[in-house]
Amino acid sequence: MRRALLRLGTVLALGLGLLAVPFGPGVVEEAQAATSNGKIYNKDGDVVMAASFNSGLHYYHEHENASPDKPNFFQVMDKCDDGESPVVTWTIEGRAVDGWSADDCTSSSLLPFKLYAVETGYEEPAMASMQWHLAAKDADGNQLGSTDVKHDWAGSYTDDGSDLYTHASLYRDEYDTGGDTLVVTILPTDKAKGLDVAAIVDAYTAQIWDHVTTRLPRPGSVTDDQAESLYKQLWCHVRFNAYGIRGGHTWDLEAERPNIDWELVTEDIAIHGCNWGTTEDQGWFSRPPTDGGDPENLAPMVDAGPDVSVDEGSAVTLKGTAADDGGTPATEWTYTRGDDVDEGATCTFAEPTAPRTTLTCTDDGTYTVKLTADDGVNQPVSDRATVTVRNVAPTLDVTAPKEWDVHRVETEVPVVASFTDPGSNDTHTCKVTWDDGSTSDFPAKDGRCETSHVYDHAGMDTVAVEVTDDDGGTDDAERMVVVYDPRAGLASGAGTLGDGLGFTALAKYPTAGSTVPAGAVKLSVPTATGRHTIVSTDLDWLVITPDAKAAVKGRSATHGFLGYLESGRFRGVTWPLTQGNTPPAAPTYDSTPGASWDLDEAQPKPLRTGLTVIDTGWLPGLPQLPAPLGDTVGNLLNTLPTLRLDLHGDTAA
């Protein structure tokens, strides 16, 4: 089927989304559809004033509640009783600034805001560039806040229609998510909408096309495909009524709709409704416009409030606002997850039908919240804001092992740790570093990290437990465990350190099944008033590592002590037992203060006099000791004078 086509001249400007940065907390607003928006907020983030510019006949197409004789107008919302008056100024094609203002309104119990329709008076047959901004002023004319200047287009307009249409307009409109398009809006007469004779569709279409394109000159040019698509859309709208479906109050032709085959246009009208899709397979939208309501009722104005950020699992306040000239409209919040949000994440509104409410999300990422207002007359109106949810790291609590737990080699050392995470949609992994060159990595289960490990040799091992969520948040904790081997040899030594400490030590596990070592330790600790000598009454444990390092822990009647031995080195630590069975952060005496308790990092000091003997092999019983330590543990202490140890001073045990 062939159709006579007129060539439309226009330039399609892509990406006209206008950004408006209002006075206040720095919210960015996007122009939606054929409107540009500006809002002014107070310091608390509440909207006090808003305006939107409706290009051409876009508002009438959306709502059918303003006269088609009112193109290119502003809708202004003002909060009442706040001492601030709205002022809108604009220029069209660089002409002198026009303006409009109103005194601060007085609210009623139902109307805390007031709506205004502000006509620009632009009713020309050509589209024109324009600029505008909204300002808030006090009673003396002092400016309290302002939006940035908005850039937009005043749509072309004609009201000298034929017997087939009454008004027509050209304006730029958002199209899908890829930019904008040129829209031809035509208001058909009852004659055009009542057509049920398919034979004269061609004649009616050509008559409307010729008349509109003559009265509304276009800037630039469009491709042949775009012109043909526009013509096919008009033909479809005329033909649509023959199917017994009256359609809406306007016909809208969009240049970005693809130029589909005539067969699809004519045969699939009931499917695509003259609104065919943009996909390569020519998918259909099937969205014929519907009739609106009372021409005297303005659509609501709605504001979703400023963009906000919050930690996952915490509630953030959404400062939405909705107003209508017929009273407070019904409102509802919805949300959509961004591409950076994990599957399964959900958000909850405390009061989804209240303009001011809170939102809590189970995972981090970017969410778009939408506040929709419905006055029951017009099409619902929506506004959006962005909620950025920050990740919060999990919090770890290690219950096992306890610090200084003692375990025999070749037995299991358990790790039990629980954690909490306000991001309930997060997944977690656990990692345990055992300090012997091995690690365990595994997924957490039910908020817990549980595993165990068997040490092959004795040592003082720092067990590091770490939990990480799927967004990289992490928490960790360390516990030191003592691993002894009763089959190890003996640790012995006697001597002095540079600070005056004197020591003798002999410790060994008597049998392969022993759980505590036998032996004795004596420390002569230098003090400000002399010496404090500590003689062991019990030994708790002995660690001898394969690389000939040793540590022994025990207690006297009143003090606890630690002794670290390496070849030619010793470290002594003492503290009152009233401070606990393990050394406090600041013990009474430490020959290497501040060093780690871990045997590998204990940093014992070089001996000034004496020697140490560490035997990593094991023989049953207590062996004969090398000179000058004596021959048995029983007479070890009697050898101290021969080792030149200073026993003078306070010798209280």
Largest sheet: 10 strands, antiparallel
What is the highest CATH level, the class of the largest domain?
Mainly Beta
Strand residue content: 35-45%
What is the strand tally? 42
Shape: elongated
The value of Rg in angstroms is 43 Å
Helix content: under 10%
How many alpha or pi helices? 6
Spans where pLDDT lies below 50 across 5 or more residues = 1-32, 289-295, 623-653
Output the structural class: mainly beta
Q: Fill in the CATH topology of the largest domain.
A: Immunoglobulin-like
Tell me the distance between the termini: 115 Å
User: Mean pLDDT, nearest integer?
Assistant: 84
Instruction: Estimate nothing, just give the exact number of structural domains.
Output: 4
The CATH architecture category of the largest domain equals Sandwich
Question: Explain this structure to me?
Answer:
The chain is mainly beta and 653 residues long. It has 4 domains: 1-179 and 188-246, Immunoglobulin-like; 301-390, Immunoglobulin-like (Sandwich); 395-484, Immunoglobulins (Immunoglobulin-like), CATH 2.60.40; 490-643, no CATH class. It is 8% helix and 42% strand. The chain contains 6 helices and 42 strands. Strands 33, 34, 35, 36, 37, 38, 39, 40, 41 and 42 form a 10-stranded antiparallel β-sheet that branches. Strands 6, 7, 9, 10 and 11 form a 5-stranded antiparallel β-sheet that branches. Helix 3 (201-215) crosses helix 4 (224-240). The longest helix has 17 residues, at 224-240. The termini are far apart.
